[in-house]
Amino acid sequence: MKYFQKEITLPPYKRGFHLITSIIEKAIPELQEINVGQLQVFIKHTSASLTVNENADPTVRADFESHFNKIVPENASYYKHTTEGSDDMPAHLKASLLGSMVTLPITRGRLNIGTWQGIYLCEHRDYGGERDLVISAFGN
Fold first, then answer.
1. Is 93 helix (H, G, I), strand (E, B) or coil?
2. What angle in degrees, to the nearest 10, is found between the helix axes of 88-98 and 58-71?
3. Quick check: pTM over 0.85?
4. Distance CA 84, CA 88 (A)
5. pLDDT, tens digit, for every residue of 57-75?
6. What residue ranges do the domains of the chain occupy?
7. Does 2-139 carry CATH code 1.10.10.10?
């Protein structure tokens, strides 16, 4: 069994859903050494998240942002956690809905994902800043 782990820092992204698959793949070229295994990507933040979805049509990512803003609105009267700005509490809720980690299969040294799938960084803050990721790959 082989194990590889790296931490990387993403530059600040504007609020929205951003494809980061190629950044992940470049950060851990050791994927090529794994015939059968898994890749885990974990984000070390509570106001951003990760998910896997459509990688071709950017309108899907725009629609994700619009929909999440509708189901988790800013300035809800019942929010108590408001000292860090109107986008902060909704960002925490959105991050919990989507999750802080994705796990993907590795087959013959490559991510075994669908043709139209990619890893999204889901930035839920207006000015979230840099985001730290832990990337772990393991297998035979």
1. helix
2. 120
3. yes
4. 6
5. 999 999 999 999 999 999 9
6. 2-139
7. no
